[in-house]
Write a structure and sequence with these properties.
homodimer, mainly alpha, Arc Repressor Mutant, subunit A, 68% helix, DNA-binding, transcription regulation (chains A, B), TetR family transcriptional regulator (chains A, B)
Chain lengths: 218, 218
DNA sequence: CACCGGATGGACTCCAAGGTCCCGTTTTCC
DNA sequence: GGAAAACGGGACCTTGGAGTCCATCCGGTG
């Protein structure tokens, strides 16, 4: 969860550069394939072929498929948080949120809403099947929401947001709108619902902005 | 999609009462099992056992697993729409929306947010794997949103909602909040995020209510 | 009441996919 | 530079689960 490296190897024995590269190729292939086909519908042979490795490599680096999936959960979590950190850690204004929204929408519109969020798509498939994966995903969502709520806290501290705004709840609402938007966009193969959902959440946050016309006494 | 009966049999030959009962038992078992384990992780043997039928029954009523899944999509769609129609077709006030929200939250809190929405959980698993299932799910979501937007239209026509409220967009936003809320609640095994998400959407709708203090000239 | 087609049970086949193993190659460390 | 261990290829094993088949049962109809 909290590793700096994107792909954290199970460090129980020495590992060479080549080994790390192979492990990353496997994870990368699993990442791509499982995003479009789903976890259960992707076979190890698919991954072996796409990653240009062999069966023994898979089992050299991962005990079994479940462990590979768990590693993928960390891998994706790290990727998403890294990307989101870049977009959110300097968030200080409402227009920053709008830019963030636009980037997500644009990325998802490239494939007409298909595939959805890498984390959300795993969640429904894994959460009732692998408790460990579920809790890791849950923590990743929490960390993601924290990136948002931290930004909102900064906005509140600087007087942009009213004092009665609750950054945590706003962040949860925004995340739910994002994930629900991904899901509806995926079902419709069209980004429009995702835009509507995000705009609703942003509008809601906007309603907590201190109006320039208000508080003129300060 | 638009059948009145919950379980619409493939009417290519005559079918007895007993046959219908068996088909329903199969669909009902598939419904329950696939909700908790997911579609791909549920085997036909699981369904056979849970429905107290035999292999020949499954293949007597459904050509293969894919067709069973597609039938399940219709089955669930009909169930959800039937349930939602009961709760939404007389929607005329904001407090009606709150009651609707409370019913959903309470139902989901019974299992601590697990399993999520029957439609949403299938969507991410099937939409990139079975185009026919995807479009059926998409239509079901659209019909569900229409139940909401129809209610909002009634509220707008009766002067409760401002004229600049867009019932379709509000309904989409509410649905996204609901689905995203289900997803986060499922990940967290806790209904709280779902409540926050729904409250955000309701708050947003509330902001379009005609204020009693406003429009006093009418 | 005899017949026929749908309904049913359950053994069986077959294959895809997870997992094992062996042996050769490369890297690392002393 | 040599031993030990990581890395790698791919044939092979095993099993779970989808799908088939056939004998039997039942129930409606002439």
């Amino acid at each position: 969860m909290s590793d700096e490296q994107v792909a954290a190897p199970t460090n129980r024995r020495r590992i060479s550069q080549r080994g790390i590269a192979t492990r990353d190729r496997i994870l990368d292939a699993a990442n791509r394939l499982m995003l479009v086909r789903g976890v259960n519908a992707t076979t190890l042979d698919d991954i072996r072929e796409a990653s240009q490795t062999s069966k023994s490599q898979l089992y050299h680096h991962f005990a079994d498929k479940q462990e590979l999936v768990r590693a993928l959960v960390s891998y994706r979590g790290a990727l998403v948080l890294q990307r989101e950190r870049a977009g959110l850690e300097r968030l200080r204004s409402f227009s920053g949120l709008v830019r963030w929204r636009n980037a997500l929408v644009q990325a998802n519109s490239l494939n007409n809403g298909k595939y959805g969020c890498g984390l959300g798509s795993m969640t429904l498939e894994l959460s009732d099947q692998d408790e460990q994966a579920r809790s890791a995903l849950s923590e990743t969502f929490a960390a993601w929401e924290r990136l948002i709520s931290d930004g909102l806290h900064r906005m509140r501290d600087s007087g942009l947001l009213r004092q009665d705004a609750d950054p945590e709840k706003l962040a949860t609402g925004l995340m739910a709108a994002l994930q629900g938007g991904y899901l509806l966009a995926n079902a419709a193969h069209n980004v429009a619902p995702m835009e509507v959902a995000l705009d609703m959440a942003l509008e809601h946050i906007k309603s907590f902005l201190v109006q320039p016309s208000e508080e003129p006494t300060r």
